[in-house]
Structure formats: C-alpha cells, structure tokens
Design goal:
Helices cover 82% and strands 0% of the residues. By secondary structure, it is mostly helical. Helix 1 packs across helix 3 (41-66). The protein starts with 5 loop residues before the first helix and ends with a helix.
C-alpha cells in the first residue's frame, strides 16, 4: 500500500469535514461550516475545496484501480 501524500491527506480531511457537515445538516439542519465561518467568501472557498477534494479522491482512486 502506498503512503498518502500531503495532498491526499488534505483531500481526505476536507471530504470527511464535508461529509460530517452534510450529516449534521441532514439530521439536524445545522450547517457547521456556515456557523464557524459565516456566510462569507471564506465559507464558499471551503465548500469549493471540499468539492475539488472529492473530485481529486475520485480520480486518484480510479487511477489506482486501473493500475
């Protein structure tokens, strides 16, 4: 098994944060990112990074499977 790079770890953490945020929102209607960062450009950037991290994990996961 390969060691995870810093980019892999960052993507993993962001996807977990995004997943937990969706779980909180779905179960209790609480958007933790919005609570912590407010409705701001920073919160939008975090949401964007979470989405890009998910795409990164999807692509790298598929590439590893195709090897």
């Amino acid at each position: 098994m390969e060691k995870m790079s810093i980019l892999d770890w960052a993507a993993f953490v962001l996807v977990v944060v995004g997943g937990l945020n969706w779980a909180l929102y779905g179960l209790m209607g609480v958007d933790l990112v919005a609570i912590l960062l407010g409705v701001s450009v920073l919160a939008q950037a975090v949401y964007g990074l979470i989405g890009l991290s998910a795409l990164y994990m999807l692509v790298t996961g598929l590439m590893r499977e195709l090897k």
